[in-house]
Amino acid sequence: MILPRRFRNLSLLLGTFIVLAIVICAVFAPYLSTHGIEQMDMRNRFSGPTLSHWLGTDNFGRDLWSRLIFGARVSLTIACISVAVSAVVGTAVGLAAGYFGGWTDLILMRITDIFLGFPAIVLALAIVAVLGPGMVNVAIAIIVVAWTEYARVVRATTLMLREQNYVQAARALGAHPVRILVKEILPNAMGPIIVLASLGFGTAIIAESALSFLGFGLPPPTPTWGWTLAYGTRFMRDEPWLAIIAGATIMVTVLGFNLLGDGLRDALDPRHLSRSAGRKK
Amino acid sequence: MSDNLAASPLLSVENLKVHFAIRAGVFQRQVGEVKAVDGVSFSIGAGETLGLVGESGCGKSTTGLALMGLVKATDGRIAMQGAEDVTAMRSVPRAHRRRMQIIFQDPFSSLNPRQRIRDIIRAPLDIHGIGTTEERRAEVAKLISLVGLRPDQADNFPHQFSGGQRQRIGIARALALKPDIIVCDEPVSALDVSVQAQILNLLADLQRELGLSYLFISHDLGVVEHVSHRVAVMYLGRIVETGPKKAIFSKPLHPYSELLLRSAPSHDPHRRHQFSAVSDDIPSATKKPSGCAFHTRCPLATDICRRIEPQLEVKADGQFVACHHR
């Protein structure tokens, strides 16, 4: 395989493979599904894996494989929206706080601290409880919890970058702060943001599943992973298949995103980047 | 030469002060002050190079940054010929930026690693809205050849260049706005000696062709002697001696200038320092000695030096010295 050396690491490859597999399942769900997701077969509940039902059936006799790949669509959509928005919001706050310093920094970071002060899942539950269920509302709940991470990391990176001479040079030229942030600082802060975003996918999927599990996610019959897991646990003692497979799906997906994030972290590490990120004295 | 230059200086700096507050504790109370630059005055004429020398931490770089508005001046006046005083302004106006630019010491951190050379050099033109897209492109090409780089290197990234080449790129960026004065903040200290000579010659050529003035900040006396017309020696935030290069280098009057020049390594290993300081400990800029800041290290120090701070006075032709004894 022709890849630059720094992209050749196991967690990056494995993570990319898992994530790609899940994304393909989600995108081509209508073609890959073997049964209709709402097609019940009450004589054939908790079937366990069979030739017809690859991953078995749930408590209503619905095909688990088909429901899980359609559930991937829900999970990935919510994860995409929430990661994109929280990365943008968090990055903007972090850039402003880190670059301007002083009162701007103080106020923005205290606001961040307030958001961090709430237990994440309680805050998310409260938001969904107020806004009501729905894909966008679940995404909003995750965004409110997740943006702080970006803000803090980007602020720290900005504090370091603003002392660089090329930023000083741009100031000496009379560049507008927005231009300096967008053209000089942001491109050099992208590494940590990309890593955080890929790790954030995992967190968002867990958060969405947790909300669904607790009954605050998308209402049935939407085939969410969290609901499937929640139902599975009810029948755990007699029919463990359902919970195990639903749980394993969530676990493998999150693992995939985390491996991808860790791999990217290694690949984008400044020590590997020394030739393009500027040598240290 | 210095007489008619002094009549209408291009840049005049009067009593410039840059003090940094030292804050500590939960409430960030001010517990002290670093007087990095403490009442510096000088002027630079058109086409002239003023060398600013001194040991590390004496405030020479801070002086340069204050001129550029990159650190805020606490007090004093910075005036360009035919322009308003910019010191007190909250932000330095763009017209001022166009007349004064800066070259940094570290050629590795002075260029954004994510931008192509073409874009780095074009940035000043973009920021000031000079010319059309086509004119900017032509101007960038001109600048690239002016500083001795090849036109086909324009699309490369900074990491593809050596330290000397990167310094040339920094110079091209500084020249883009056609400034009158360039603050050179230790422009060759980070370079190999052979490359230093190339960059110094480039700066000299540009001065001749474009009539530039330089404020040349350096701790390397050999380099300063090579490029400067006049020299100012700084010690702990103040200029202790200033004058024509020849005078300063042949007969320095201030004991500190003497110490500095005598400490410069010579080619003859058998030559020993003829002049030694009483102590080599540099006092901290937070707790400056009373009176003359140099009295703790000065072999000539007497009681008056501990009490009264000497002012710059003419001691010889064009040579100003702040010392009670010379």
Report what the structure shows.
The complex is a heterodimer of chains A (281) and B (326). Chain A has 281 residues and is mostly helical. Chain A has helices at 10-27, 29-32, 64-100, 102-117, 120-131, 135-161, 165-172, 177-213, 225-234, 241-267, 274-277. Chain A has one domain (7-31, 57-272): MetI-like fold (Orthogonal Bundle), CATH 1.10.3720.10. Helix content of chain A is 71%, strand content 0%. Chain B has one domain: 3-Layer(aba) Sandwich (Rossmann fold), CATH 3.40.50.300. Chain B has helices at residues 2-7, 60-67, 94-99, 117-127, 133-146, 163-175, 193-210, 221-227, 245-250, 255-263, 303-307, and strands at 11-24, 29-44, 49-53, 75-80, 100-103, 181-185, 213-218, 230-235, 238-244, 313-316, 319-321. Chain B is globular, with a radius of gyration of 21 Å. Chain B has 326 residues and is α/β, with parallel strands linked by helices. The longest helix of chain B has 18 residues, at 193-210. The A-B interface holds A 164-166, 168-176, 179, 183-184, 187-188, 275-279, 281 and B 65, 68-70, 92, 94, 97-98, 101-102, 104, 106, 108-115, 120, 123-124, 127-128, 157-159, 170, 173, 177, 190.
